[in-house]
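fwd from M.: "can u put these together and see what the complex looks like"

so here's what she sent:
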Amino acid sequence: MSFAFYVVAALTLAGGLAAVLLKNLVHCALALTVAFAGLALLFLQLDAQFVGFAQILVYIGAVAILVVFAILLTRASETPKSSEIFSRTWLAGLALAAAVFAVMGWAVLQAAPGLPHVIAAPTVTVQEIGAALMGRYVLPLEIVALLLTAALIGAVIVAMHEKEGAR
Amino acid sequence: MLEKADQIFVLLLHWLVGFLPAGWQHGAGVVLCVATIVLLYPALFAIAVLLERKGLGRMQNRYGPNRVGLFGILQPVADGIKSLTKEDIVPYKADALVHFMAPLVLVVAVFMGFAVMPMGRNMVLVDMDASLLFFFAMGASTELSIFMAGWSSRNKYSLLGAMRAMAQMISYEVPLLLSSVVIVMMTGSLSLVKIVEAQNHYSWGLPHWYVFTPWGFAGFVMFVIASMAETNRSPFDLPEGESEIVAGYFTEYSGFKFALFFLGEYVGMFGISGLGATLFLGGWSAPFAFLSWVPSWIWFFAKVMAWICFFIWVRGTLPRLRQDQLMNFAWKFVLPMTLVNLMVAALWRFMGEGLLRWVVCSAIVVVVYAVMGRVEMRRGRLGPRSYRYAE
């Protein structure tokens, strides 16, 4: 827990909070990007280069752009009136969020004593990650690939259908 | 003596840092290197802009800038002073903070890429394991800055330009990454330093650059196309097409912020050229074995400048693509070609040494290229535009 960790953690939390609290949707998306960047920095602090850079590449380079595209194409990025901010089910949402947080916190607390006390973080090279993905974890990787391919084909079919209807 | 010329910057750094107490040496060295990178590339930017304006002038049968200094060589200085002294105008309706942040995010992300670029033997700022991934991650962050600029300006041309830029950059990022994956497959490493070292061998005086293999050549061509699209260069300059949408996403920028966008664009070009030279053209290694006495950093910068000259040449030669041509070309031609190229590279790897793999791999690449090109042309994808939403 160094000084840098606290700075990055504060940045990530501030980004996440801003993404929830800001009123302009595009500002929210940009704040979310700050939170993504903070998470990537946290990964890098743990010497997880591959995950950190993949986080930047995928989340900032693609997911944030998609979010922004979706906002621009659907809502024209107008600011909603102040009365509409709170949805009517905010109490249920709050309870659900608290429950999820409690379960996760409980899981982490339960898992912590069972872990061996390792002071130095293990150094894992990108090559080892690649070998593990292609060797031991090849089945999950292939399943994810199949899922993504199905999603891709589905998206293409949705777009094609729309085109036929227009003619 | 030649050894010293090759390592002159490394030795200079060690000599300068030697004046400081031992505890400070590492930090001071890093600061010096960063300062050098941040000063060097804007200087190259000035040279490249002048080269571009003079070269385009040549190609279009006019003089180009020739008033400031001898043959106009001081034009970049005049431009710099002009953009510094101009009024910085922010539109009344603009989102001031985002409008201010956009050029900064662009320039920072673009400069970060040079941290992992080997610019000569032992001349790399950070030699990390996943440096190729780092470069692409930084390149991907520039897209967001373009959106910020386009959206915050509250101008329809800016927004149109930003939407075009993002659609184009996302589409061409896929072939850009996939065409570089071939290199990673062959080298077995994501480290740019190791990729250069793997190419720095000679047989019969000729280098083992990846561009001189069937899969390397195909990857090289697609990398060049994708890099032109990634840097919004002509013929892929739709995001800032002057005849259509004023200046695209930086229409509402003036003064020094405009200069920052301009700088970011050119430094991004240097970055992608340097990466391309590192991946396919052997980085800092010499093109012939008998020329390896020339300092390595000269070769690196010569390759980058040659790449820039090629970009300028293409800009002076080809007309701008249409949006539908751009997308069709990316998704229906370049992307399948890169996927085929991955297969070819795998085949090359497992066929072992010999003449056979040259014949087989070249044949596959050429046949797939010819067949796909024919099919695309026959289907009329490159023909007249069909309007989808404006019927």
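replying to her w this: The two ends of chain A are 61 Å apart (CA to CA).
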